[in-house]
Amino acid sequence: MFYNNSIFFFWLSFIICTSDALNLPTKIFYDSSNGMHRDRQYHPEQSARISACVSAISTYMESSAHAIEIIDVAADQEEIPDIHSKTSRGFFSDHNLSNARSTLVEIHSEELVSRIERKCRLSRERRIEVGKDALGFIGYLDDGGDTYLTTESYDVCLRATACWMECVDRALRDECRYAMALTRPPGHHSTRSLPNGFCIFNFAAAAAVHAAKTCQRVAILDWDVHYGQGVADIIEGYANIRYVSMHQYPAFPYQGEKRGERGEFQNIMTVPVAVDSSWTCGFESPFMSKVLPFCSSLEWQPDLVIVCAGYDALSSDELASCNLVAADYGKMTRLLIQHLGEDTKIIFGLEGGYQLQDGAPGGNLCDAVVETIK
Questions:
Q1: pLDDT digits (tens, 9 = 90+) for 245-276
Q2: What mean pLDDT comes out for the span 286-301?
């Protein structure tokens, strides 16, 4: 009788725990004040990327039973209007932002973080002193004019870092099924010492290093169409973190051209795909045979997987030449979940993806983001 009761209570507790996990919400963190980081002319990496995605997720929520919570981490809610009435707001404490800064210093350097911070702070002070608006354009950090600063870029990036780290914390505390940092600018190109490719600080590396302080193993899966050479540069020195990137070659940053593992700990894998690759012809096979096994195997099982969720491999995106459609990102998400099992936590963080046109062939950024979180 005791044996039968034990079996009964074991399965009852299992069913309850599984049900609780399925009922947990997906948490989406975004910053409605991200538009204070903007170029003085048209730039594909623009604040409309975030507002359009938040609106699309909110529309999806209206017809879905999927529990989703949208959390705005904007600095000052009184000055920034709601993008959608279904959003709820939250603010990072000074402690949260201090931790985010400390992590940025750990993965980059005090010199780089302080230099960016000083540029933004001093430029803001000078503008105020001469009677100008506090928000203003400072200049470009690279020769190509891709990566720029405004007076508020440092603070926007600091909140973005905190968003990625908050996703990690919420997932590890079992407060959500999945979490997404819907932030900008992207981060995965930024190396230890060099902002580039729209990226100022490396949020994915920051989130991974933050997670590794409590997790035994962390994996980063990068499906942005461009190789995240910055993540690889930072992460290759961490034995308990792996990074795998599936990206188009040739394409910016013109690295990661060979398939294989590298690094002192063999913890970096590059999986290049050819121009014009689609899901069935170019992506599916290496995703199943290389990417997923490198993320997790019997010999190496992570506690957390961080997805660098770039959506510029869409056929409609003009910054690359691949042929994925929005539904393919849903496929990759489901395959990743199935491969990892229920015990491994997953968070997503926005990297690239610039197609915002409604009705774009194969879908746009918003369509792909919604497919990811379904």
A1: 999 999 999 999 999 999 999 999 999 999 99
A2: 97
Residues ≥6 apart with Cβ < 8 Å to 1: none
Tracing tokens 């894998």 back to the chain, one arrives at: 269
Give the residue carrying structure tokens 């393919």.
328
For the cut 50, the answer to whether the pLDDT of residue 8 exceeds it is: no
Place of tokens 């981490």: 73
Asked if the bond preceding 81 is cis, omega within 30° of 0, the reply is no
Output the pLDDT for position 342: 83
Residue by residue, DSSP assigns 126-151 as HHHHTT--S--EEEESSTTS-SEEET
Cβ neighbour number for residue 79 with a 10 Å cutoff: 8
Residue 132 CA to residue 124 CA, distance in Å, equals 9
Instruction: Please compute the mean of the pLDDT values over residues 232-256 and round it to a whole number.
Output: 98
Strand 88-89 relative to strand 260-262, pairing: unpaired
Least Cα distance to 239 among 208, 274, 264 occurs for: 264
Measured between alpha carbons, how far is 250 from 256 in angstroms, rounded to an integer? Answer: 9
Q: To which H or E segment does residue 245 belong?
A: strand 241-248
Distance of CA 273 to the CA centre of its chain: 21
How many CB atoms neighbour CB 263 within 10 A? 16
Amino acid at 63: S
What would the mean pLDDT of 116-144 be, rounded to a whole number?
96
CB atoms within 10 A of CB 20: 10
Greatest CA separation for the chain: 84
Whether the link from the prior residue into 361 is cis, omega within 30° of 0, is: no
pLDDT of residue 177: 84
User: In terms of C-beta density within 10 A (0-12 exposed, 13-18 middle, 19 or more buried), how is residue 226 classed?
Assistant: buried
Run of H or E including 103: helix 94-107
CA–CA distance, 329 with 325 (Å, rounded to integer)? 8
* pLDDT, average across residues 59-65: 94
The separation between the first and the last C-alpha atoms of the chain, rounded to the nearest angstrom, is 43
Supply the pTM of this predicted model: 0.92
What integer is the mean pLDDT of 328-353?
Answer: 96
Please say whether the beta carbons of 225 and 320 come within 8 A: yes
> Token pair of 312, please?
């510029």
